[in-house]
């Protein structure tokens, strides 16, 4: 019994030295075409797996006609985003809401998208 009490006191003591912070990783998204949308947009990053810092990606952005929030499996809509051999990878643009970001990313990945861009419907500080 004494050992458990000593451990609890030690744990509480060490907890007093713990420090944590939440950092929003920001980046930019450069749109090069069409001319009406050319600009650089501030965005937040959601990393899955090992982060790939310092690189760039080039691809084609597609906004689906169905399942625009990517909350369902794209197989239900007979949609695939797999790039053709020698073609640019597909970046899927979806709307925010109705399900977790991880579900959106999972459904996009299963459908062959190389990346997912989740568009917010309001102007607010970036969070991840």
Task: Describe the structure in your own words.
With about 130 residues, this protein is an alpha/beta fold. The chain has a domain at about 55-120: Glucose Oxidase, domain 1. The chain is about 20% helix and about 20% strand. It has 2 helices and 5 strands, in the order αββββαβ. The chain has helices spanning about 1-15, 100-110, and strands at about 25-30, 40-45, 60, 90-95, 115-120. The protein has a 3-stranded parallel beta sheet with strand order 3-4-5, with helices on one face. Strands 1-2 form a two-stranded antiparallel sheet. A hairpin with a 7-residue loop joins strand 1 and strand 2. The longest helix has 14 residues, at about 1-15. It starts with a helix and ends in a 9-residue tail after the last strand.
Number of helices: 2
**CATH-defined architecture of the domain at 54-119:** 3-Layer(bba) Sandwich
The CATH topology of the domain at 54-119 corresponds to: Glucose Oxidase, domain 1
Query: What is the tally of beta strands?
Result: 5
The residue-averaged pLDDT reads 84
How much helix, percentage-wise, in residues? 10-25%
β-strand amount: 15-25%
Uncertain runs are: none
Largest sheet: 3 strands, parallel
**H and E order:** HEEEEHE
Strand order of the largest sheet: 3-4-5
Helix/strand-derived category reads alpha/beta
Terminal Cα span: 43 Å
């Amino acid at each position: 019994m004494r050992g458990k009490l000593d451990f609890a006191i030690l744990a509480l003591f060490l907890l007093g030295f713990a420090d944590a912070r939440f950092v929003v990783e920001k980046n930019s998204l450069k749109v090069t075409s069409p001319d009406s949308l050319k600009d650089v947009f501030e965005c937040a990053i959601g990393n899955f797996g090992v982060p790939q810092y310092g690189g760039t990606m080039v691809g084609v952005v597609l906004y689906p006609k169905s399942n625009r929030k990517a909350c369902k499996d794209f197989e239900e809509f007979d949609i695939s985003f797999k790039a053709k051999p020698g073609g640019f990878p597909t970046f899927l643009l979806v709307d925010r809401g109705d399900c977790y970001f991880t579900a959106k990313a999972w459904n996009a990945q299963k459908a062959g998208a190389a990346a997912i861009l989740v568009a917010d419907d309001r102007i607010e500080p970036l969070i991840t």
